[in-house]
Amino acid sequence: MTDPFLSELLDLALEAARRAGALLRDGRPADLGVAATKSSPIDVVTEMDIRAEKLITGFLAEHRPADGFLGEEGASSEGTSGIRWVIDPLDGTVNYLYGLPTWAVSIAAERDGERVVGVVEAPMRRETFHAVLGGGAFGNGEALHCRPAAPLDQALVSTGFNYVTEVRTHQAAVAERMIPRLRDIRRGGSAAVDLCDVAAGRLDGYYERGLHPWDLAAGDLIAREAGALTGGRPGLPADRDLAVAATPGVFEPLQVLLEELGAWHD
């Protein structure tokens, strides 16, 4: 990468994610409990989500005090530099609460609204993913490439489910109708990790309804830089209605199938 400014942002994101990942991995109390709930009683925040976000924002603000922030646990400021950090300090909180390994720290940098840097740190998998706009995607320093094109009926696709009962009931119905038309479906529990697994060639595709910007920002860039296509409903970018990421051969038929099944509404 030749752009020194983007190199600076990447180095800061990598270090912030490394520090937050170490805090979450090594500082997890044995009696970890729920600090708050979000959309429903089973959509939780732990004390560690909050500590990790404070660590990240504090570190980044120390080095770049004029930048803005958008964080899942409440960090929000406009900034004056044109750079905004989009942060999910702990993506996969329920996995983390239960001691499952699929969780990650996700940090992205936007310049004038365009994502230019993405980092996903998955400490329990000993993996660090990163991408810079136009510079490719990497996992533990090795270049990432999504899988070769496959027919939809041979595609392994991951998804996630909302924590509001009425919403996930419809999502389960959509998944039930999709399963016979795919190789199979997986449910990992972390959007950031799923997007990186598309980038790394471990999945042919991923889709989910109800994601927020912090869920998507880093992983979407990493997937695209690895050669995947990303978007939402046909002709639209990824948003709360629908996010889709897949290899070029799977993306369009998967997107069409999701539209047909109404995956974008409750």
Automatic annotation (TrEMBL):
It catalyses: a myo-inositol phosphate + H2O = myo-inositol + phosphate. The keyword Cell membrane does not apply. It comes from the Bacteria. It holds the Pfam family Inositol_P. The keyword Magnesium applies. GO terms for molecular function: inositol monophosphate phosphatase activity. Its cofactor is Mg(2+). CDD domains: IMPase. It is an enzyme of class 3 (hydrolase). Its EC number is 3.1.3.25. InterPro entries: IMPase, Inositol_monoP_metal-BS, Inositol_monophosphatase-like, Inositol_monophosphatase_CS. Keywords: Hydrolase, Magnesium, Metal-binding. Belongs to the inositol monophosphatase superfamily. PANTHER family: INOSITOL MONOPHOSPHATASE (PTHR20854), INOSITOL-1-MONOPHOSPHATASE-RELATED (PTHR20854:SF4). This is Inositol-1-monophosphatase.
